[in-house]
Structure prediction request, 45 residues.
Amino acid sequence: LNEKGEKISVRASGLLCRDLCHEIDHLEGIMFCDKAKSLYKESEE
Prediction:
């Protein structure tokens, strides 16, 4: 949403895409270390 509360759409690829996904995760309360822990646990099994 923009500053007026309107829905926006963004198209990105490469590093910008990764960065946007990372920042959206922060807004949703997801931290990279949480994702890394789950990846590490899955690879151990």
Summary: Residues 14-27 form the longest helix (14 residues). The helical segments are 14-27, 32-44.
